[in-house]
Specification:
By secondary structure, this protein is an alpha+beta fold. The chain has helices at 15-29, 35-49, 89-101, 113-121, and strands at 5-9, 54-60, 63-71, 74-80, 105-109, 124-130, 141-146. Helix content is 35%, strand content 31%.
Length: 147
């Protein structure tokens, strides 16, 4: 990572760029998502999901390449632009969330094996499972806690 990165609080003016990162990331990692559900989450991102969390964006050269959403001590979301995956930026954001925001729990789609492996490698363990996601859709969720 030669470029300088910065993590800062996200704002409403960042929502379009954040949603671009979200879309890129989800298309690269959430192959199990039905097209109509992808559209549902995309439509509700800026109006329902992003305003409900404390957002932090990771920028490189003033360009947002990743973000996290946190609520209390729970990591609600972590997404990295598809072109920036595998370069350590997810780890940087997760470490920031743990060290500076005090997160100890998160949920991950059971079908997203790569993300599950990522979190397990960083000290999280599965503590539970739900058949459906928070919207009641048929995407089983694993509940993880930092050990």
């Amino acid at each position: 990572m030669q470029n300088t990165f910065q993590i800062r609080k996200g704002s409403v003016s960042d929502f379009p760029n954040i949603m671009n990162v979200w879309e890129s990331s989800v298309k690269a990692t959430h192959h199990f998502l039905k097209p109509e559900d992808f559209e549902y989450y995309k439509q509700h991102g800026p109006t329902k999901y992003l305003p409900a969390v404390d957002l932090y964006v990771l920028r490189i050269d003033k360009m947002i390449i990743g973000f996290i959403g946190v609520s209390d001590n729970h990591l609600e979301m972590l997404f990295i632009d598809a072109d920036s995956r595998g370069k350590g930026y997810g780890k940087i954001l997760l470490n920031y969330a743990i060290e500076h925001l005090g997160i100890t729990t998160l949920d991950v789609n059971e079908q997203n094996k790569q993300a599950l492996g990522f979190y397990k490698k960083r000290g999280f363990s599965i503590t539970g499972r739900s058949e459906k996601d928070a919207e009641g859709k048929d995407y089983p969720m694993l509940h993880l806690e930092l050990q």
